[in-house]
Amino acid sequence: MLGCLLTLIVATVPRDFSPRHEALTRFTYTEYHMGVDARLVVYAKDENAAVDACTAAFARIAQLDSMMSDYREDSELMKLCNQAGGPPVRVSPELFLVLRRAREISERSNGEFDVTVGPLVQLWRKARKTGVLPAPDEIAKARKLTGWGMIHLDPRDHTVRLERKGMRLDLGGIAKGYADDEAQRVLKQHGITRALVEMGGDIVVSGAPPGKKGWDIAVPNAGGADMTFANQAISTSGDTEQFVIIGGTRYSHVVDPRTGMALTSRVQATVVARDGLTADPLSTAMTLLDKSGRGRLLKSYAGAKAYVRVLRTIR
To answer: What is the CATH number of domain 7-68+175-227?
Structure first.
């Protein structure tokens, strides 16, 4: 069985006896990774096949967490940040890929999505714990270390240079989507072609469950009705869980790179795209852009759709 398995649910489902498909059973496994419950729902021929595939998928998620976490000082990401202001640093193909997509979306969103917000995020994490707003001079200092243009990528040598000492990257708006993609890739390597991977607000699905056209997933910003998806990614961003109320104002965990302030406008966005590496950062960007900006950004990614709900600011 899985080494650190938290939950196993076996569900008997209608068997598909068509010539194309073996009889399949639904299995659900949950482990804690990247600060959230990671859930795998797979259709497999038997429990052994499901366990083998999901063990490998969870191991891949754990590997990516060890690379991209800003909570772990020994992660590859934090080792890169500790060399900010110095010469270029060679990084793994995975980290380079994620940073390249992050920089691309930063450019296309005019900097509204920006993984260099780490110094600002640190201030607002402290505010959520203490209930005290960051001081204006602290925000001003952190803003000087923020700006996607200060990430320099060399695709030939796979190196990254962070321009200023003290820069800190936060991949919270993109790493989970990529981890979902990679989990699906590993599942397919193990013969699982009908699966759902979910981490927080990020979901990636492969082929449809037996006898169905797709996976039924509720999209809150589309009226809450179930929608059907197959071979797609669905990511939702907003402040429904992570926020703090200080002085009667609700501050989101999402920080606006332009101002250094946590959002108070309460925008929730769901993006549907071809993969998690696209949907995850786009959903974050949608909470920061205005209507015209959202439209321009979506046009950059073929087939991407957004469902946005603007909620009342709480004061």
So the answer is: 3.10.520.10
The whole-model pTM stands at 0.89
Q: Dihedrals φ, ψ of 169, to 5°?
A: -95, 145
Residue pLDDT, tens place only, 114-138? 999 999 999 988 988 889 999 999 9
For CA atoms 286, 289, 293, 297, give the dihedral sign.
negative
- In terms of average pLDDT, the best of 71-75, 174-178, 307-311 is 174-178
CA distance 298 to 305: 7
Question: What would you measure as the largest C-alpha separation in the chain, in angstroms?
Answer: 68
Rounded CA-CA distance 42/62 in Å is 19
Q: Give the H/E segment covering residue 296.
A: helix 291-299
Ramachandran angles phi, psi of 165, nearest 5°: -60, 135
What's CA 251's distance to the chain center, in Å?
A: 20
Question: What are the domain boundaries of the chain?
Answer: 7-68+175-227
> How far is residue 308's CA from residue 64's CA, in Å, rounded to a whole number?
29
Q: How far apart are CA 258 and CA 113, in angstroms?
A: 10
Distances in Å between the Cα of 56 and the Cα atoms of 25, 42, 52, 225 are 19, 13, 6, 33
In the three-class reduction of DSSP (H, G, I as helix; E, B as strand; rest coil), residue 152 is classed as: strand
Q: What is the pLDDT of residue 267?
A: 82
Element (H, E) at 33: strand 25-33
Nearest CA among 144, 86, 136, 150 for reference residue 119: 144
Q: What is the dihedral of CA 122, 127, 128, 129, to 10 degrees?
A: 90
Hey, is 306 helix, strand or coil? Answer: strand
Residue positions counted in the chain? 315
Tell me the two tokens of residue 154. Answer: 């060399």
Separation CA 160–CA 137 (nearest Å) = 29
